[in-house]
């Protein structure tokens, strides 16, 4: 009898301790996340096109998240070991510039002046000149440090627009922003003439990729866990207005890049498997997952498949490319079209995937 009482007391105390841990010490204050509807049309049917990529720089590139190309056709990749690597047109890979020993380099772009602009989640926006000199451009906005700079693009007037994924959570706990499902993202603008940084848009749902339209009339910014992209108008008569560019995407939009024909390529992530989508409709489950990260690892699905979509300038999906099982590519974060080929960056693979456009047709 005494043992039973002790055992019952132990279970009660343990349950109470776990409850207190989950609900009083949880790092998030979650909202319910509304997931997009399932698509059943043939255009949205999974395929295996991405399983046919050619692997460039395999074993040399450590999870190349961001990609860009310069005027000479040189491809640049930001890797998890603090390097900016260059891929030559013949497929060879070069260690170009070691920025530091951290894994904080994300999106990048080459300006018309030939400078490489890189988002560093710890340092903000940095510039790497052609001779490799590193300069901090934007480290603060409105008196606050810029954390989690994610992607950057140059507009026609030389301004640099860049996203801040979250002002509350950082790179290594980005999943907490998704679980909390409250908008902490921003779109910022760096003026190279005044060297000042200003806030363009606030309250974005994990602001991610940014791209400017071919006619320079608007900018697109991806909101990952809102499963949509916004259109921010740049042309004078519409400047500052915001519209939805595309919504109800078949996953979370990551980086976005302009294609030569004026369309856009968007990398798409899957937050959870179809069997686990219920976790986003329960605040209690979100608290548990946020408190015990190893449990979240069992739920997340971003590194189990790969998807990319091509979207017209009118916001309509043209094409979809997949590796539905992650057999060859997974966690694709960037898609870049250049010279008749598609290049894919990833936060799981140790290479850049290359696929001829004709193969993906």
> Overall pLDDT, averaged?
91
Rg: 21 Å
Strand order of the largest sheet: 1-26-25-24
Structural class: mainly beta
N-end to C-end Cα span = 73 Å
Q: Level of helix content?
A: 10-25%
Main sheet?
4 strands, antiparallel
**Total number of β-strand segments?**
26
Can you tell me the overall shape? globular
Which oligomeric form is depicted?
A: single chain
How much of the polypeptide forms β-strand, as a percent range? 35-45%
* Spans of at least 5 consecutive residues with low confidence: 5-18
Number of helices: 5
Describe this structure in a few short sentences:
This protein is mainly β and about 350 residues long. It has helices spanning about 1-25, 175-180, 285-290, 295-300, 355-360, and strands at about 55, 65-70, 75-80, 85, 95-100, 105-110, 115-120, 125-130, 135-140, 140, 145, 150-155, 160-165, 185-190, 195-205, 205-210, 220-225, 230-235, 240-245, 250-260, 265-270, 305-310, 315-325, 330-340, 340-345, 350-355.
């Amino acid at each position: 009898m005494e043992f039973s009482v002790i055992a019952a007391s132990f279970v009660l105390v343990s349950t109470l301790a776990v409850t207190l841990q989950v609900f009083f010490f949880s790092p998030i204050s979650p909202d319910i996340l509304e997931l997009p509807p399932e698509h059943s049309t043939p255009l949205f049917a999974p395929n295996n096109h991405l399983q046919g990529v050619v692997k460039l720089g395999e074993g040399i590139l450590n999870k190349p998240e961001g990609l860009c190309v310069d005027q000479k056709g040189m491809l640049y990749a930001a890797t998890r070991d603090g390097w900016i690597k260059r891929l030559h047109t013949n497929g060879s890979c070069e260690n170009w510039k070691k920025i530091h020993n951290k894994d904080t380099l994300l999106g990048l772009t080459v300006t018309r002046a030939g400078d490489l602009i890189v988002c560093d989640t710890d340092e903000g926006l940095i510039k790497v000149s052609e001779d490799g000199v590193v300069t901090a451009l934007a480290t603060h906005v409105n008196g606050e440090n810029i954390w989690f700079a994610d992607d950057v693009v140059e507009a026609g007037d030389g301004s640099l627009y860049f996203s801040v994924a979250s002002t509350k959570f950082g790179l290594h706990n980005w999943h907490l922003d998704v679980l909390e499902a409250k908008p902490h993202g921003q779109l910022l603008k760096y003026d190279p003439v005044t060297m000042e940084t200003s806030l363009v848009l606030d309250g974005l749902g994990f602001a991610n990729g940014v791209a400017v339209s071919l006619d320079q009339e608007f900018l697109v910014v991806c909101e990952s866990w809102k499963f949509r992209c916004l259109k921010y108008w740049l042309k004078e008569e519409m400047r500052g207005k915001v519209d939805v560019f595309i919504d109800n995407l078949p996953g979370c939009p990551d980086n976005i890049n302009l294609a030569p024909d004026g369309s856009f390529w968007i990398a798409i992530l899957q937050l959870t498997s179809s069997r686990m989508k219920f976790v986003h409709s329960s605040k209690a489950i979100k608290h548990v997952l946020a408190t015990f990260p190893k449990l979240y690892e069992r739920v997340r699905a971003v590194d189990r498949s790969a998807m990319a979509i091509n979207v017209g300038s009118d916001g309509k999906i043209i094409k979809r490319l997949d590796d539905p099982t992650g057999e060859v590519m997974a966690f694709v974060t960037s898609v870049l079209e250049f010279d008749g080929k598609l290049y894919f960056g990833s936060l799981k693979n140790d290479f850049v995937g290359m696929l001829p456009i004709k193969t993906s047709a």
